[in-house]
């Protein structure tokens, strides 16, 4: 059994200062997942990462470190209002919708509302994409390197943690987790040449 207060302090010390200020760690024995972070809402300044303290000690120290770093990196990397094409289209669509609403133009309202909706759906989909998951994994490996891990050690610990989470939670490994493991193997140059 690990000392929960010491573990929380140790995990917080792993985080970079910019992520530490925006992340709060909570322990909850009632949650079914080993570690969980709700999808970040743009209006929340602090993001919660919840650990199950009864399941957490079943992972090794490097697995715990990398899994926590990866979750904190993921939750703080999502920015729905980051400037981009879809954000611009959504803004134009919303402005056009307001204008067409004032003018009571049904067809214009339908077109601009549709544009805003399509752009909003694309923003939402991109914020839940596998590419964002892979980027969070890579960012966690980079942070771990500043905390004394080598790239290979960090990537291997995260691969091991992904497999352990599936085992501890009593579920199978998902397709996205398999893709993430392959990417981590490639990142750490762990794949065997054929």
What this model shows, in words?
It is a single chain. By secondary structure, the chain is mainly alpha-helical. Helix content is 62%, strand content 7%. The protein has helices spanning 4-14, 17-20, 61-77, 85-103, 106-127, 130-145, 151-169, 175-187; strands at residues 23-27, 35-37, 47-51. It has a three-stranded mixed beta sheet, with helices on one face. The longest helix has 22 residues, at 106-127. It is elongated. The mean pLDDT is 81.
Give the helices and strands, then pairings.
Blueprint: H1 4-14, H2 17-20, E1 23-27, E2 35-37, E3 47-51, H3 61-77, H4 85-103, H5 106-127, H6 130-145, H7 151-169, H8 175-187
Parallel strand pairs: 1-3
Antiparallel strand pairs: 2-3
Helix pairs in contact: 3-6, 3-7, 4-5, 6-7, 6-8, 7-8
Low-confidence stretches: none
Query: Biggest sheet: strands side by side, in what order?
Result: 1-3-2
Oligomer: single chain
Count of distinct strands: 3
Helical percentage: 55-70%
Radius of gyration: 20 Å
Measured between the Cα atoms of the first and last residue, the distance is 43 Å
Envelope shape: elongated
Q: Which percent range describes the beta-strand content?
A: 5-15%
Number of helices: 8
Mind summarizing the main beta sheet? 3 strands, mixed
Tell me the series of helices and strands, N- to C-terminal.
HHEEEHHHHHH
Class from secondary-structure proportions? mainly alpha
